[in-house]
Design brief:
Among the domains are: 309 residues, no CATH class; 64 residues. It contains 27 helices and two strands. Helix 1 packs antiparallel against helix 2, helix 5 packs antiparallel against helix 6 and helix 15 runs antiparallel to helix 16. It is globular and about 110 Å long.
């Protein structure tokens, strides 16, 4: 059954080709159903191969299809590596992608480029499958670039708005910075090992010089930081919310942004062979990003922007896990995050759909009565990401924090503080959207809320928000909420069914890796063939485990209570938790924009001038001098024999005169 692994990327690729050439003719909704069916079948094949993988030695299987780049010592083939890591990744990638495809059929209803949207989605899933299943770094990089290209297409899908097109270009360019590092890492790997195939060079990593391993790991880390939106290259992800909400759920929550974490886990033998400061650098980048993004999320008013910064923060937890050698914990949080964050993004899309394109949380409120299915599934995922027991996020987050505490107390403290802020800002979102008075009708509360929005737009950035203004029912913009005919409504079944499935997964996926006994750590034992030798090992006593779980629960519940008394039963002032510094993202993005548009632009203009005047001038000057000299020499070649004889005579006389000056009598 494992021989069918090639079908996992082939099925969505076939869907892409079919929709590319016949999408317009097929039309809506059949194009959506075809795209969904190919990805769903890919998930079915993934389940079949998972069953077959149990019978393989160390749960590992390799399939070589054909040679791709036979160039001297560089032999790169198209082959797939199916092992515990890639198997776990491909299961949730194809499963969640199928649900998001189904959701998109309802969400994108009425869009004039309906078929093209599913064309891009299918290509993305195929590229992500190649990234995860590829048996060598070059094939991984092919999928890496494929998902980056699809990200550009999908972020700027509604390119009619300049802001949307700019957001796509920003994502593409920022990721190119990281891709440079990844390419250098691939080149150096081949230079050192003579191969880029994982099963050939990773077993040799323990004998590698620490300096060499560190440089390879550092370069690949640069690529991971760009793709997974970590400090300092996280600025593209918030703007990526300009794309349709299913794109945000699929690419920027559940799959693509975790690619960097996947690659770091894949090269764990190289990280283990490097100097100790490299894993610590990964941990510091992760915890710093998690903390910074959480502070920014506390002050955002766009529902998707809150979730965008939340994604950056949660991926920071995964980087923290990799840095402290908690690879299984990192993958565990990746899986649970894929479920509850996809549900949250799709829930946000359902809210935007029901609110006719509105994204500002200050214009919502009381929606649980009008959108019960969306509200219930959103609440389950909220409890999961907030870290409330027994939901999945509680177990995966605490698994990461447990490894952090074993490595460094400061990492644990910052991670725990970030968890508190996560519970707070997600509670803020839930209370503003689903509870409290309705602020979207013609009530006095709504009028006051709109006055507040108008007064603070420049502070909170709603005025320059890209806007996911697709109302999923054919509308291209939200109607005036002050109109008396405005009523929120629940989404169609094609959108609510994926929400129910994802909400269920967000609740129960914690059972994959419970901390009480080794027998309950199913994911950790499953990953042992890939990371077991380099995974951090420590004894966790019952008392210590109880303390950590109780402390985490107190932090989560306490943060929810604080949010409750800030936004539902006001006893605390909201502005205490929403300073302008947070609302403006610590001015980091604006600072980069100012630099690139100001000093940076002048600097690059100066470099361009230097290149044009000095470098090109030197080359062109040599060419002009050669051409001028040749033109002058050409005048003496006139074809007259007497002239040539005269020149020979003059030359001979000059030679005789020179010789005479050198002779002493």
């Amino acid at each position: 059954m494992v021989e069918l692994v090639w079908l996992i990327p082939a099925l969505p690729l076939a869907g892409f080709l079919l929709l590319l050439f016949l999408g317009k003719r097929i039309g809506e909704p059949r194009a959506g159903w075809i795209g969904t069916a190919t990805v769903a079948l890919s998930f079915v094949v993934a389940v079949i191969t998972f069953i077959g993988l149990w019978n393989e030695p160390e749960h590992t299987y390799e399939l070589q299809l054909f040679d791709w780049i036979p160039a001297g010592k560089l032999q790169v083939g198209v082959g797939f590596l199916l092992d515990p890591l890639s198997m776990a990744m491909i299961l949730f990638i194809t499963g969640i992608s199928a649900l998001i495809h189904l959701y998109s059929i309802g969400y994108m209803h009425g869009d004039e480029r309906f078929a093209r949207f599913f064309t891009y989605l299918n290509l993305f899933v195929a590229s992500m499958a190649v990234l995860v299943l590829g048996d060598n770094l070059v094939l991984t990089f092919l999928g890496w670039e494929g998902v980056g290209t699809c990200s550009y297409f999908l972020i700027s899908f509604w390119f009619q708005k300049d802001a949307n097109a700019s957001a796509g270009k920003k994502a593409f360019i920022t990721n190119r910075v990281g891709d440079w590092g990844f390419m250098i890492g691939i080149f150096l790997t081949f230079f050192v090992f003579g191969t880029v195939t994982y099963t050939e060079f990773l077993p040799l990593a323990p004998g590698l010089a620490a300096s060499t391993a560190t440089f390879i790991g550092l370069m690949i880390l640069v690529g991971a930081v760009g793709k997974s939106a970590q400090i300092p290259l996280y600025i593209w992800l918030p703007d990526a919310m300009a794309g349709p909400t299913p794109v945000s759920a699929l690419i920027h929550a559940a799959t693509m942004v975790t690619a960097g974490v996947y690659v770091l886990i894949r090269i764990n033998p190289i990280l283990a062979a490097s100097y100790s400061w490299l894993p610590m650098t990964i941990a510091i980048i992760g915890v710093a990003t998690a903390f910074l993004a959480a502070t920014i999320a506390m002050a955002q008013n766009d529902i998707k922007k809150v979730l965008a910064y939340s994604t950056i923060s949660q991926i920071g937890y995964m980087f923290l896990a990799v840095g402290v050698a908690g690879y299984a914990a990192g993958l565990f949080h990746m899986i649970t995050h894929a479920a509850f964050k996809a549900c949250l993004f799709l829930g946000a899309g359902s809210v935007i759909h029901g609110m006719h394109g509105e994204q500002d949380m200050r214009r919502m409120g009381g929606l649980r009565k009008w959108m019960p299915v969306t509200a219930i599934t959103f609440l389950v995922s909220w409890l999961a990401i907030a870290g409330v027991i027994p939901f999945s996020g509680f177990w995966s987050k605490d698994d990461v924090l447990s490894y952090a505490l074993h490595k460094n107390v400061l990492l644990y403290i910052v991670g725990l503080l970030t968890a508190a802020m996560t519970a707070f800002y997600m509670s803020r979102l839930v209370f503003k959207v689903f509870f409290g008075p309705a602020r979207w009708g013609d009530t006095p509360e709504s009028v006051a809320a709109f006055a507040e929005v108008g007064a603070s737009t420049t502070v909170h950035g709603h005025g320059d928000d890209h806007g996911d203004d697709h109302a999923a029912d054919g509308a291209t913009g939200g109607t005036d909420p002050l109109g008396g005919d405005f009523h929120p409504h629940e989404s169609p079944p094609s959108m609510t069914i994926p929400l129910v499935v994802l909400g269920f997964l967000a609740a129960v996926l914690g059972v994959l890796n419970l901390p009480f006994t080794d027998q309950l750590q199913f994911l950790g034992r499953w990953l042992e063939p890939v990371v077991g030798a380099n995974e951090a090992h420590f004894e966790l006593s019952g008392a210590k485990l109880t303390f950590e779980l109780v402390l985490s629960t107190v932090v989560a519940v306490g943060s929810i209570v604080v949010a409750y008394f800030t936004y539902l039963r006001p006893r605390l002032r909201a502005r205490w938790f929403e300073p302008r510094l947070f609302a403006e993202g610590w001015y980091y993005d604006k600072g980069i924009t100012a630099f690139v548009g100001g000093l940076g632009r002048r600097g690059f203009d100066a470099i361009a001038t230097f290149d044009r005047v000095v470098i090109d001038g030197a080359v062109n000057g040599v060419a002009r001098a050669t051409r001028g000299g040749a033109a002058r020499l050409r005048t003496i070649e006139n074809g007259y024999v007497r002239w040539y004889a005269l020149l020979i005579g003059v030359g001979a006389a000059l030679m005789v005169a020179f010789v005479l000056t050198q002779v002493s009598f």
